[in-house]
């Protein structure tokens, strides 16, 4: 998990920001979003590392299934913003992207296909949704080596069985190191 942590921390560095032109006032929101994402990621990572050490990938899948949403909810409350994870290839249908997230994820996929590193993919902007102005921020999640035991192409039979049991419509497999696996999503109300 340390490699995944290093990749994510690199991805959250100040050099990896895409902000809509002319909106430099967004920088404080971007910084607070990144801090919340780092805290959220650390909480989830710690739980997954413990599970991997005690019972391997199958235990990690069980932990992710049971604690990812409660951690997400707790960190959202703690940071006073809506935090989530989403992807173009879903494991949990509850994490389906909304229209804004879908469009930005597709842009990320195009940028990555054109050669841009996943660690450089982020985007923040003010968005009007139903008459309410929100700051929206998406930050890409890179696929690290440790991710492949549950998200790769050659899954262990026990891992595949557990995924089939918990996520019968799973699409979040077949990744390789360095692929765009999804994104952290943040919403701040204005």
What's the short story on this structure?
This protein is of the alpha+beta class and 190 residues long.
Distance between the termini: 35 Å
Strand content: 15-25%
Number of strand segments? 4
Please report the number of helical segments: 5
The SSE string, one letter per element, is: HHEHEEHHE
Structural class: alpha+beta
Strand order of the largest sheet: 1-4-3-2
Shape: globular
Largest sheet: 4 strands, antiparallel
Q: Can you tell me the residue ranges where pLDDT is under 50 for at least 5 consecutive residues?
A: 1-22
- The helix fraction, in percent, is 40-55%
Average of per-residue pLDDT values? 88
Radius of gyration, rounded?
Answer: 16 Å
Fold blueprint:
Layout lengths: L1 H10 L15 H53 L2 E5 L12 H15 L8 E8 L2 E11 L5 H4 L5 H10 L13 E10 L1
Structure report:
- The structure is a single chain.
- The chain is an alpha+beta fold.
- It is built from five helices and four strands.
- The chain has helices at 2-11, 27-79, 99-113, 148-151, 157-166; strands spanning 82-86, 122-129, 132-142, 180-189.
- It has a four-stranded antiparallel beta sheet with strand order 1-4-3-2, sandwiched between helices.
- A hairpin with a 2-residue loop joins strand 2 and strand 3 (132-142).
- Helix 2 packs across helix 5.
- The longest helix has 53 residues, at 27-79.
- The radius of gyration is 16 Å and the shape is globular.
- The termini are far apart.
- 34% of the residues are buried.
- Mean pLDDT is 88; it is low at 1-22.
